[in-house]
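stage 2 :: seqdesign
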């Protein structure tokens, strides 16, 4: 593939360096690009030999937080549910509040889906998918 500057591939009045919106005659794909060359360019990002620095900067805190999660779960199994604040004056503690919270969120998703159906919202199919997905994940979390 021959790399040419984008400024040479576009119309002289192209938005590069200007403030006008793109024209219908401006190319979507640079001249000389093929499906194979575009696939190679996109896949080269994921198939690099070494990861980007920003990837490591994001991955290290994620691994540390995963370690905190594992430690918290191990502590829960070791110490028991008493660490949630379950004691004699508050025997229901964190577990029942968490359950009620997520069931309420799931009910809200069902309500939103029904509301869109009853009002015949124009784009309700995609909105209902979002609401029903929220319902499924909230019910699974409870």
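stage 2 :: out
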């Amino acid at each position: 593939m021959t790399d040419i500057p984008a400024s040479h591939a576009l119309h002289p009045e192209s938005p590069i360096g200007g403030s006008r919106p793109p024209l219908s005659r401006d190319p979507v794909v640079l001249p000389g690009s093929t499906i194979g060359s575009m696939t190679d360019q996109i896949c080269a990002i994921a198939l690099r030999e070494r990861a980007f620095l920003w990837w490591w900067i994001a991955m290290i805190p994620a691994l540390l937080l995963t370690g905190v999660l594992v430690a918290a779960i191990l502590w829960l199994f070791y110490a028991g549910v008493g660490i949630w604040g379950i004691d004699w004056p508050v025997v229901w503690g964190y577990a029942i509040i968490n359950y009620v919270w997520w069931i309420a969120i799931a009910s809200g998703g069902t309500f939103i889906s029904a509301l869109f159906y009853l009002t015949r919202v124009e784009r309700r199919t995609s909105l209902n998918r979002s609401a029903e997905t929220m319902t499924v994940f909230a019910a699974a979390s409870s």
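stage 3 :: structure notes
- The radius of gyration is 26 Å.
- Helices lie at 6-9, 35-46, 53-79, 93-118, 124-141.
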